[in-house]
Write a structure and sequence with these properties.
The chain has 224 residues and is an alpha/beta fold. Helix content is 49%, strand content 11%. The protein has a five-stranded parallel beta sheet, with helices on both faces. The two termini are 31 Å apart. The relative contact order is 0.20.
């Protein structure tokens, strides 16, 4: 099937504003164009054979389960592409809340694995490139403060610390500085997420518009 709509990926640290931006883009696209986007997450647990490895690798990462977790991520992303993304793209945009960059950062921080190595392991499984990746950039301190203010999120002692998050943000910058090494990210647009919500949404909207990734406006009733 020909792809008629874009795969839009949102990346950034915890607290960068990905969820807020995803909701804003969702409402704008649905309201202006009459098409409802599909939202997907970095892990969707669609491959039941690797669900256990996904949980173990994410919450109890270690050398013993590193390769199994990496393989499980690839399998789950492959299932997400085949069962959700590709069937949706002929009919609606897909907005992914995290996709590849977040995995590269996790393995860099937790397993000292170079982003290029993690990317090589995931690329064949993912297969489908994003039409655009919007990287929301803040300082690690700002992201932590925002994340801590969310009542529904519990702090993770091994992750939600300033030293760890500074390393995460450093990996994000490293990837953004060499996007040609990560072709499946598509065009990578860096957005200053320290700005207010309307400004961030406007910057993301401009990036989509400039790359002609927005749907055609539906005809008005009085158009001939």
């Amino acid at each position: 099937m020909d792809r008629r709509f874009p795969l839009i990926v949102l990346e950034g640290g915890d607290g960068a504003g990905k969820t807020t931006l995803r909701k804003g883009l969702f409402r704008l696209i649905e309201g202006l164009y009459g098409v409802t986007p599909l939202s997907v997450l970095t892990t969707n647990y669609l491959d039941e054979d690797v669900a256990g490895d996904l949980v173990e690798g994410k919450y109890h990462p270690g050398e013993a389960n590193r390769e199994r977790y990496l393989a499980a991520l690839g399998a789950d992303k492959r299932a997400t592409v085949q069962r959700l993304i590709l069937p949706a793209l002929p009919w609606r945009p897909v907005i992914a809340d995290r996709w590849i960059i977040s995995e590269l950062a996790f393995f860099a921080v937790k397993h000292a694995m170079a982003p290029e190595r993690t990317y090589a392991a995931l690329a064949d499984a993912v297969g489908v490139g994003a039409d655009i990746t919007l990287l929301l950039e803040t300082t690690a301190r700002t992201a932590l403060d925002r994340a801590a203010s969310r009542a529904d999120d519990a702090a993770r002692q091994d992750w939600d610390t300033l030293p760890v998050q500074e390393r995460v943000h450093a990996v994000h910058r490293q990837i953004a500085d060499s996007p040609d090494d990560f072709a499946l990210l598509g065009p990578l647009v860096r957005i200053d997420a320290s700005a207010d919500r309307p400004t961030v949404l406007n910057a993301a909207w401009d990036a989509l518009r400039e790359r002609r990734l927005l749907p055609a406006l539906p005809p008005r009733e009085n158009d001939s």
